[in-house]
Design a protein that fits this description.
This protein is α/β, with parallel strands linked by helices and 261 residues long. The chain has a single domain, classed as Rossmann fold (3-Layer(aba) Sandwich). It has eight helices and eleven strands. An eight-stranded mixed sheet has the order 6-7-5-4-8-9-11-10, with helices on both faces. Strands 1-2-3 form a three-stranded antiparallel sheet, with no helix packed on it. Helix 6 links the parallel strand 8 and strand 9. Helix 1 crosses helix 2. The protein is globular, with a radius of gyration of 17 Å. It binds S-adenosylmethionine. The site of S-adenosylmethionine has 21 residues, from helix 2, strand 5 and helix 5.
């Protein structure tokens, strides 16, 4: 039976947001609905996107002509825009297809007026088109924002994903996007060499990935707080021994759909 997650969200609070300036000087928002900021204030919005998601994934999936990225979820679009910024310099000939679910349609529509960092100046037209049409395409970049619940939207994706930026709100505030069942759906649309980046280091989340066959690694310390990298293949990174974690903490369990309401 299909599980209905709508009771986890509160659309009546969705419009209530506050601008916050983060420590790298870039701006993010605070969401009343999730009672959380879209980015870590200490790391900074742009720095977090680049150092936690874009650079570590790029370093593991280099030299591809064409890359498909799943950006969970679009939010203010920092991860998508930081990807365009980074690849423009490091790999200008790569073809990028970014697919990004997002529940909050009005947020995306409002982003044409968001005060982005100067690093995104070249993408003003892309931001405008995404705000209006939720998609953009030119000869090397394709972006699709899928407006709706990511739990439903990812099931409709019919291409294999190379990189996943797992950047939902925290597991406490946004649990439906952190369970074993969620990661199973992500695995189903992933290439065997997929690289998943996330800020979460929680054992219940690492187990939810591990029990789907993902290898778990410490994220490289790129001048930012720690995180996790996961892949269905072996990576040249420090591996987290999940069997040892289970042995040392027999009560630790993977977060599952049944645990959330
Ligand atoms: C932490 S923010 C993402 C920040 C974003 N990566 C950025 O760089 O700006 C989490 C986003 O997930 C969205 N979200 C939460 N639950 C969702 C769901 N079930 N389906 C789609 N989007 C969801 C929220 O509306 C919010 O925009």
């Amino acid at each position: 039976m299909k599980r209905d997650f709508s009771s986890l969200y509160n659309p009546s609070l969705r419009a209530q947001k506050k601008i916050i300036t983060t420590e790298d000087g870039t701006q993010t928002l605070y969401s009343k609905e999730f009672d959380e900021c879209y980015h870590g204030i200490k790391d900074g919005a742009l720095k977090e996107s680049l150092k936690k998601h874009v650079e570590p994934a790029y370093n593991l999936i280099k030299n591809r002509d064409s890359i498909t990225i799943l950006d969970i979820c679009y939010g203010l679009g920092f991860n998508t825009l930081a990807t365009l910024y980074f690849y423009k310099v490091e790999s200008p000939n790569s073809k990028l297809h970014i697919i990004s679910p997002e529940l909050d349609e009005s947020l995306v529509q409002s982003l044409k007026d968001f005060n982005y960092p100067k690093e995104f100046d070249d993408f003003k037209d892309i931001i405008k088109q995404l705000s209006k049409n939720f998609k953009y395409e030119d000869k090397s970049i394709k972006i699709d924002i899928l407006i709706g619940d990511a739990r439903d939207e990812v099931k409709k994706i019919d291409r294999k994903i190379d990189i996943i930026y797992q950047d939902a709100f925290s597991p406490k505030k946004n649990p439906a996007l952190w369970t074993k069942e969620w990661f199973k759906d992500l695995k189903n649309i992933s290439n065997s060499s997929v690289v998943l980046t996330t800020y979460s280091v929680a054992t219940s989340i690492r187990l939810a990935l591990y029990e789907n066959g993902f290898n778990i690694y410490m994220a490289p310390q790129l001048d930012i707080r720690s995180g996790t990298i996961a892949s269905l293949s072996s990576l040249p990174l420090e591996r987290v021994d999940m069997e040892l974690k289970k042995e040392r903490n027999p009560k630790a369990i993977a977060l599952q759909d049944i645990d959330i309401n």
